[in-house]
Design a protein that fits this description.
2 copies of one chain form a homodimer.
Chain A: H1 9-27, H2 34-41, H3 55-74, H4 83-100, H5 102-110, H6 117-143, H7 152-164, H8 166-169, H9 178-192
Helix pairs in contact in A: 1-2, 1-5, 3-5, 3-6, 4-6, 4-9, 6-7
Chain B binds a DNA duplex (30 and 30 nucleotides) through loops.
DNA sequence: CTAGGAATTGAACGTACGTTCACCTAACTT
DNA sequence: AAGTTAGGTGAACGTACGTTCAATTCCTAG
């Protein structure tokens, strides 16, 4: 036996990435074997190497394309308005984006230490770029007096951690709907940085 | 060659746990080998099995004793006062405790998925117990009107994520000292839940 | 000073890993 | 209808894993 009916690179490639993402999110990169990924895709382990040169690159590509998507998506969010508005836009974007991609986010945050030095540097740089968007909003808000933040770097890390944390407990079809979650998180973010109340759309 | 001068179970045991904790925090449980741990301790791999029945139990014991310590330590924090006071006590305790044990915390939060089902249930239960302490404070505060929190469960997760996140960026001897960090995080926590300002000791 | 147990070695066991490769076959081109 | 090739198999490679255990050495008690 060899090639099965209806097999196509266009189909298998994405399926490999999807299976890898899912398994890595559940069990961790080091704990997942190429044979497990292959089984999930319905293919032999050797076939995976038509789609990635090696396991490390598979992880890196997963994380890289996630960060690319994140930066691409956030680039169309308007963060140029008044700081309170920009912060709300950022927070709501962050939550919505992360709710849609819980597995990818989980991988991107948990598997940093399994990247080679070079690969780590690339992802870390992208992450910094993203976090800087938030920090600049906080800086503007502090400068104009609407935010009461002692240290914008620490506040940035605190807010990112809080917002990203939702991927650890959020499950599709749970008690809370996405809109509620966005509203409640935004409420906490807004108050945490001391933005004055009530500035809806 | 066999036993080296000055070797003692009382010394090697803790060193095994410490080396394991350190390596697992840096590289992840699945990526760390028994031989690496042994090398760090200065011992052969076989000797580790005098101190743990197997690798999985080593991880579990690390996490279990960390959670035991956490619950033991928090039990002597007075959380019975007014909600704002209790929240401050909890936040400051959480930060101080976690700053002292960055590696253990990192392991306890990142390696949950590498526990067997039974072991996971134990740790998860302890974690829930701890989080419930915070949630009860939030509930009391909301009931008495000093906290403005829409959903205490979500707020609990958000605050824990924010506070625990500091272990991902805090490094000994960095720009900020521990007191500053406590003050700034407490400030954000207090405002996030809508506790009225200025209620220092 | 000597026996006996505690601590540790070093080699070995079976298993499973990531990766390679010669071969095969279904589908597209002409 | 034949030829080409992308897509895939399945077996094999060397390595490294977790774990076991007989043998060895150091320490302690009497």
């Amino acid at each position: 036996m060899a090639r099965k009916t209806g097999s196509h690179s266009d189909i298998t490639g994405p399926r490999v990435r999807s299976a890898a993402r899912s398994l890595i999110a559940r069990h961790g990169f080091a704990a997942v074997t190429m044979r497990q990924i292959a089984r999930e895709v319905g293919v032999q382990a050797g076939a995976l190497y038509l789609y990635t040169p090696d396991k490390q690159t598979l992880l890196f590509d997963l994380m890289k394309s996630h960060m690319d998507e994140l930066l691409e998506a956030v680039s169309s969010v308007d963060l140029s308005g008044p700081p309170e508005r920009a912060l709300e836009a950022f927070a709501r974007f962050h939550i919505a984006f992360h709710l849609d991609r819980a597995e990818a986010v989980f991988v991107a945050y948990m598997e940093l230490r399994n990247l080679t030095e070079d690969n780590f540097a690339v992802i870390e740089d992208q992450r910094k770029t993203y976090e800087n968007l938030l920090e600049r909003i906080l800086q503007r808000g502090r400068a104009s007096g609407v935010f009461a933040v002692h240290d914008t770097k620490l506040a940035t890390m605190a807010l990112i951690a809080m917002l990203t944390g939702l991927t650890t407990w959020y499950r599709e079809g749970g008690r809370l709907d996405r809109g509620d979650i966005q509203d409640m998180y935004w409420d906490m973010v807004r108050k945490a940085v001391g933005a004055d109340a009530a500035l809806s759309a």
